[in-house]
Amino acid sequence: MELKYTKSFLSRLEDIFAESDFVLRYEKGNFKAGYCLIKDMKVAIINKYFPLEGRINCLYDILRGIQINTTGLSAKSLELYEEICKQEQPQ
Predict the structure, then answer these.
(1) Domains identified in the chain, total number
(2) Which of 22, 30, 34, 76 has the most CB atoms around it within 10 Å of its CB?
C-alpha cells in the first residue's frame, strides 16, 4: 500500500479512530516516536506540531500496532484498516 500524503488521506485515517473505541488527540509533547499510545485507556496522542506527512506516518504506525473492534467501522474505513493491517510489520 502506498501512503498518500494529502489532507483527505489524513482525514480517512482519523475517521478510523473516530469510528472505533480509540481516542485520537493532537497535543504538544516530546515523544520519541512522534506519538504516545496509552493502550489501557485506548488513547493515541500525536505531536500537534508535526507536519502532514508526520501525522500520516504516525497514524499509520499506530493502526498497524493496535487491534480495533471493526464492528463500528464504515465500509470505507474497514477497507482501509484491513489494507493497513495486511502490510508487513517492520523487523
Answers:
(1) 1
(2) 22
Helical pair 7-19 and 52-65, crossing angle rounded to 10 deg: 30
Flag whether 1 is in a domain.
no
Q: What is the largest CA-CA distance in the chain?
A: 35
Residue 20 lies in a domain: yes
Residues 6+ apart with CB under 8 A from 78: 70
Range of the domain at 55: 7-86
Contact 50, 27 (CB under 8 A): no
Please report, to the nearest 10 degrees, the dihedral formed by the alpha carbons of residues 36, 38, 41, 46 taken in order. 10
Residue with cell 489501557: 40
Asked, for residue 48, whether it belongs to a domain, the answer is: yes
Residue with cell 508535526: 50
